[in-house]
Amino acid sequence: MLRTTRIWGGFVSAIAAVSAVAGWNTGDIVYVTSASGIGPSIRPAVLRIQPSPLAVFTVLADSGIQGNGAFDSFRNRAVIVRSGQFGGVMSLLDSNGSFTDMPYPGNQDAQLVAPTGDGRIYFQRFGKISYFDAGGTVHDLLNTIGSGVFVLPRQWARMYFDPTTHSLFMGTNSGINALITKIPLTLDGTRIAASPIDTIFVTAPLVSPVVVGFSPGPSGTVFIKLDDNSNNTAPRMLLMNPATIDISVFANSGYFGVGGEIAGCYSSVLNAALVVDSLSDKLRIFTLGSSGEGLASNQPLISSGGGSGENAEMFPVTASTASCPGDINNDGFVDDTDFIFFVQAYNILDCADLSMPPGCPADFNHDGFVDDSDFLIFVVGYNELVCP
């Protein structure tokens, strides 16, 4: 009991602020771009797109925004990468534009992010992948036997976590084709479970396709958005079965000009793909099986008109997949009863201890111990009280 009460007072106020509702609406689309039409001088921005009725709102204009991000349903915030004084800064962003930086050790080289929805946030760095656990501690992703850091065979352009296969999917370009790499993870997420699987997608008549977006697709698929400079109508939107890595065409689109289709994702609200036409500063909507220019919508500020080469990422706001961490007795509340259960487990510490309750339910970050990191997670739920 003393170990718990000693740290309780120091964390309540800080965690209460982090656990506040961040205002994102499930089904909305977040657009992170290095070159929006917001100005006159600061163009990098984060925009919120309301799919129905279609509308665009500015969340944040910041010169440090690099155009990479993802939505973390565990923290109910967008995770974005910004340029800081010493390199890549990772930040949690509320829908009102306020953000909290997430410090991490070592070189400040964060590039891409992939939240899992259960508290982990994987991020690509130079030569390796690291991750935040649910308590905010940073770890390096290890090789299959856990003897050392998993060394990246290459740097990728996009990153995505698929919960159904418990795998990271990485995307980039491989000469004249698109390249997708599947990295299976162990159930605890600390190591890769098997060697990465490279799959080259031949998407003729595209000449140099690069993956610019992953998002949850219909019926358990993964939606993939490609960009390419070839001036033709081609399969720039794909669906992937994450288990088999089989690919099918979602829609064929034309090339819109110098800027191309720099970003896009699937919208469950529209049951269609939403694509950025950066040359014309427009959003375009494509339904399954469609071909051509799609349905254009004149929403301003999406891109810098006539722009070319900007980095951008588009992703949906997803509902939380967490099972209400902290609700140890599964009654729909994180309350004093759960606190009693937590204290008992906290004083045992090691999940391998025979006196620990079966399944070690208070080990919220799944690291094999019930410790201070789990207490941080518990306080978040305790301050909210009612499970989402």
CATH topology of the largest domain, what is it called? Neuraminidase
Which outline best applies?
A: globular
Rounded average pLDDT? 86
- CATH homolog superfamily of the largest domain: TolB, C-terminal domain
What strand line-up does the widest sheet have? 16-17-18-19-23
Number of domains: 2
**Percent of residues in helical segments?**
10-25%
Strand element count: 25
Q: Please identify, by name, the CATH architecture of the largest domain.
A: 6 Propeller
Task: Note the beta-strand portion.
Answer: 35-45%
Give the biggest beta sheet: 5 strands, mixed
Query: For the terminal residues, how far apart are their CA atoms?
Result: 28 Å
Q: Structural class, from secondary structure content? A: mainly beta
Supply Rg.
Answer: 21 Å
Spell out the helices and strands N to C: HEEEEEEEEEEEEEEEEEEEEEEEEEHH
Low-confidence stretches: 1-21
Oligomer kind: single chain
Structure annotation, total helices: 3
- The CATH C-level name of the largest domain is Mainly Beta
If you had to describe this structure to a student in words, what would you say it looks like?
By secondary structure, the chain is mainly beta. The chain has 2 domains: 2-11 and 323-384, Orthogonal Bundle (Type 1 dockerin domain); 27-316, TolB, C-terminal domain (Neuraminidase, 6 Propeller), CATH 2.120.10. It has 3 helices and 25 strands. It has helices at residues 2-18, 336-348, 372-384; strands at residues 29-33, 45-50, 55-61, 65-72, 77-84, 87-93, 99-101, 112-115, 121-125, 128-132, 138-140, 158-162, 167-174, 177-184, 197-201, 210-216, 222-227, 234-240, 247-253, 261-267, 272-277, 282-286, 291-292, 295-297, 312-316. Strand 9 (121-125) and strand 10 form a beta hairpin. The protein is globular, with a radius of gyration of 21 Å. Residues 1-21 have low confidence and may be disordered.
